[in-house]
Amino acid sequence: MRKLIPALLMTVMLGQQGLWQPGTAYTLPEGRWEYGLFQPVRWGQSEKREISFFKLSSLLMPNITMKQRWLQKGEWAISTVHSFYYPTPLLKKLQSPLGMDIGGPNMFALISPEFEIPHMFSLWNTIVASKPLDRDRIFTGKAGFAIALGAADLAEESTIDLPLVYHRLAVFYNGWLLRFGADLNSRMKKNLTYLVDGDLFLIPGMKGFMALEHKSVVTWEKSPRFHISFGYKLIYGLYPDGYPNEHMAQLHILPLLDLQWARD
Amino acid sequence: MRQGKPFLYIMALFLFSCDPLVTTFDDVEDAVLYEAKNSTTAPVPGATIKIMTWNIRFGIGRLPFFGDSCGERSIFTESEVMDALESIANKINELDPDIIVMQEVDRESKRTAYIDQVQWLLDNTDLNYGAYASMWQAQVIPSDGIGRIDAGNAVFSKWDIESAERIQLPLRGDQDALTLLFYLRRNVLKTKITIPGQDDFYVVNTHSTAFATDDTKQKHIDKFVETLDDIDVAGYSFISGGDLNSIPPGAEVYDFCLKDVCPGNEYHTDSDGGPHREGSYFNNFDNERSLLEPLYNSYNPAITLIEAIATDGHLTHSTASENPWDRKLDYLFTNLAVVENSGQTHQNTLMLSDHAPITATVTLP
Q1: Taking residues B148-177, what's their average pLDDT?
Q2: Helix, strand, or coil (residue A82)
Q3: CA A34/CA A41 separation, integer angstroms
Q4: Which one of A26, A167, B126, B164 is most buried, by most CB atoms within 10 A?
């Protein structure tokens, strides 16, 4: 009986793995859908494969992500995540958000219209490993790389030097980048969980070659089908600079809020 | 993984960033002080010193910037900016001024390859010390892809700058709130220079509004004059100048709308003579054409008013390099004596900026 209860708890917990935990190696159960205001739409295609995409940005930046769980060895689960992004329409839109025919045609433009935006795409590949630390906590580590194709003609002066944006689009200017991260998912109370994570972006050879991002999010699980999350994101990043420096360090903090729903 | 949300992140940043997107300023605050990487020995001044004013158009020479020359570009390459800065430094070294008041100097701006032009000019001329006061500073200007910007006024000196104040000028009164938020915050840069043998020697620099169509320019000139009067009344010496964006009192031509017109634009089509092109019309309010009279009445100009309006030899600005200099907008004034006939307008700089530099020699007390 003493051994049965922990085993039962572990079984229950493992059964919930992947639910509301997009950053872990666990995949959604087959047939389950999760979607949020800002989180991607996730779908458990099979017991070991999950498909997701960002719905809002999909209109201007077609994208799709596949997470494949390969191993469940002991307490470790290991998956790989593969994403495809085609940002050309989005970046073109950012050259004239209101449209070239309206009023000030370059109003709100974040990229100068003088630059040509080529057809280009990026592929992100990450290996993700998760392990329960105890009954209430799961640790996840990840490492990956991204490559861009078709971006050779993109002018290096067309960057958007903003936190979160600069280092994600950097792959198109540098051709490749590395990304590492760690997550800690934990349950505080029956209906309250939190997530603490850190991500490191490295873009060797590029001005502003590094960003370190940290996020803390508390989630209230109102029901198995509805969650509310809030927290913050802290970004320490290097950005391009000129004489006499190569890089400029900046620190930003952003509030996070999301509502998520699920259906099986 | 969450690498696919740049648009949402941009929106979140605009709405929630704790680090202000746009830098605002106190009414009076310290300016930024600089020193050359390798200082040269400051000369012991003789009876006179040479002074200069120059609006360097943020080191892009005559390249076609969208904002002022019917151009279609916002962002310039590092090599383009370096070429222009080298030409400017060569001209400064040739003229060898002791003190410069400079306008439209960029630093860490996306449009000019992030180059700190104050530091670069200090490191590539015989000037040793600098002071900088920003007039436009933001993490991002969401228009025309300008992005990160920091542009402003600078004072350069061979002698140490003891202190530097940034004095805020009134904001434009003819813009909507959103535009105003991201728009220029012009200033007067007041510095105190340690010249051997001189007590309380001030250098004052300003760049008045170019495009306001209300009386904002009047307020800018009033504040500039007030700053100079305070120094003068206290019995101190000053040299001052800048791009005042005003024509000399008595100048015959005050309407450059048709001369500056860009393809597709039309002016003077209404029955009242309007509309006028912003920045090209110098009669927007009462007394605009005589705005500089208090300066000419109270202080000594590098170029006398008679010289300024009698010949084309002292015109300092044209919007396009195809046009010769066609108006005078740049000035030097002092409460010291200007050496007779020392004032010069260096019009052989047509391709270095859209403004010509002025130099003069003043006699130290």
Answers
A1: 97
A2: strand
A3: 6
A4: A167
Is the backbone of residue A43 left (phi > 0), alpha (psi -120 to 50) or beta? beta
Digit-coded pLDDT (tens) for B184-243: 999 999 999 999 999 999 999 999 999 999 999 999 999 999 999 999 999 999 999 999
Residue B137 CA, distance from chain mean position: 15
Query: Quick check: is B261 in a domain?
Result: yes
| Cβ–Cβ below 8 Å for A243 and B1 | no
- Contact call for residues B56 and B105 (beta carbons, < 8 A): yes
The Cβ of residue A78 has, within 10 Å, a number of other Cβ atoms equal to: 16
Where residue B315 sits, what CATH number does that domain have?
3.60.10.10
Q: What is the DSSP code string of A13-47?
A: HHHHTTTT-TTSS--PPTT-EEEESSSPEEEEEET
ipTM of the complex: 0.87
Cβ atoms < 10 Å from Cβ of A13? 15
Domains, chain A, ranges and CATH?
Answer: 4-263 (2.40.160.40)
**Strand B300-301 to B330-334 pairing:** antiparallel
**Measured between alpha carbons, how far is residue A246 from residues A52, A236, A240, B19, B139 in Å?**
37, 16, 6, 22, 17
Tens of pLDDT, residue by residue over B308-321, are: 999 999 999 999 98
Please, are residues A125 and A145 in contact by the beta-carbon 8 Å criterion? yes
Q: Quick one: average pLDDT of A147-163?
A: 96
Which residue from A minimizes the CA distance to B36? A244
The strand pair at B32-35 and B129-141 is best described as antiparallel
Q: DSSP state, B123? A: H
Residue B153 placed within a domain: yes
Question: What's residue B13's pLDDT?
Answer: 53
Q: Contact A113/B78, CB-based, under 8 Å?
A: no
Closest-CA distance, B117 to chain A, in angstroms, reads 8
Residue B118, both tokens: 């104050």
Q: Domain residues for B344?
A: 20-41+48-363
For residue B233, tell me if it sits in a domain: yes
Over residues B71-78, the mean pLDDT reads 94
Query: Does the beta carbon of B93 lie under 8 angstroms from any beta carbon of chain A?
Result: no
